[in-house]
Design brief:
Layout (H helix, E strand, L loop, with lengths): L1 H11 L6 H4 L3 H18 L2 H20 L3 H18 L2 H17 L3 H18 L7 H12 L3 H18 L12 H14 L3 H17 L3 H17 L3 H18 L2 H16 L6 H18 L2 H20 L1
Helix pairs in contact: 1-3, 1-4, 3-4, 3-5, 4-5, 4-6, 5-6, 6-7, 6-8, 7-8, 8-9, 9-10, 10-11, 10-12, 11-12, 12-13, 12-14, 13-14, 14-15, 14-16, 15-16
């Protein structure tokens, strides 16, 4: 039965175009994964570990994109146990990397660092240079969240150096594994340090790269970042257009993080404009808050809750 659900996950977990086929079977797939975990732990079943590890590889992007983060945390930690026992170092490194990113996005930075270090150790065991970007890239983002901007820049430059040595042919497949992602992160660094013009330039370059490789997730994510930058530069019209396009792009693939971010951004833009649209702004903010609560992103929850309360107060005094 576990192999049946592994085959199902492998058939539909590889692309956002088939994610809807996975939706009805999430419970069964995760139950099969848990069975494999228990069999591996109790009976030292190598085959169960192998099936579990493959399930994690097939499901991790679907669970991340569609917002099943609690389920993903459980699955990936089972997979870490399996891949460690099997000495599948590349799998272990990737599982640890995904865990680190999830904890980072939830603001649990010490835990994120622990998984980044686990990722680094595992990737070093592979002996493959192209695996060496995962941990420093993650550590750079963690440093950004900690407002350690010099440290963040160092990690991102190290990541970029490895990518440049790999060459374009090896790094064009996924936005998050290549130059576009790091370019966007340098944009975030510029944004956080108040250089909004430089941030805009970096995000424009990242968007072009994502469009060149036809990465729909990357395109949606950069729309949200670019909207933030041009908003800070006072171009509310373009910021609104970018948020609206970001929502459309993110909804197309079910990318909840960006849907929430763009809805909150759009609500903030509307708040600065016509009062007759405040009801729409409040609706958008509440929808964003619902998503952020599900994802458990602490900082985003606080920011969005404050926006909801501010809009409610404005409407109550009208």
């Amino acid at each position: 039965m576990a192999r049946y659900f592994l085959d199902y996950a492998q058939s539909y977990g590889g692309s956002w175009r088939t994610y809807d086929e996975l939706q009805p079977e999430i419970g069964n797939i995760l139950a099969a994964a848990e069975w494999c975990y228990l069999a591996g732990e109790e009976d030292k079943e190598t085959e169960a570990w192998q099936v579990l590890n493959s399930m994690g590889e097939s499901m991790r992007d679907f669970l991340r994109v569609r917002g099943y983060w609690n389920e993903q945390l459980a699955l990936l930690q089972w997979c870490v146990r399996a891949s460690r026992d099997l000495q599948k170092w590349e799998s272990l490194g990737l599982h640890a990397s995904y865990l680190g990113w999830l904890y980072c996005r939830r603001g649990e930075l010490d835990t994120a660092k622990r998984w980044a270090n686990e990722c680094s150790y595992a990737m070093q065991q592979t002996g493959k240079r192209y695996n060496m970007t995962a941990a420093p890239h993650l550590l750079g983002i963690i440093a950004l969240r900690e407002e350690k901007y010099g440290e963040a820049e160092t990690f991102l430059l190290n990541t970029l150096d490895v990518l440049q040595k790999r060459g374009l042919a090896e790094v064009r497949e996924r936005f998050y594994d290549n130059f576009g992602a790091v370019q966007g992160d340098f944009g975030v660094l510029a944004y956080e340090t108040g250089d909004y013009r430089a941030a805009q330039q970096r995000f424009e370059e990242a968007l072009k790269y994502a469009e060149d490789i036809r990465d729909l997730e990357g395109i949606a994510v950069v729309h949200a970042h670019l909207a933030d930058a041009v908003y800070k530069l006072g171009d509310f019209t373009r910021a609104r257009q970018l948020c609206e396009e970001g929502i459309r792009r993110a909804q197309e693939i079910g990318l909840l993080t960006t849907v929430a971010r763009c809805k909150r951004g759009l609500a903030e833009i509307i708040e600065q404009g016509e009062e007759d649209e405040l009801v729409k702004a409040l609706s958008l903010a509440r929808e964003a808050l619902e998503i952020e609560t599900r994802l458990g992103r602490r900082k985003n929850i606080e920011q969005t809750q404050a926006l909801v309360e501010r809009l409610e107060e404005k409407l109550s005094t009208d």
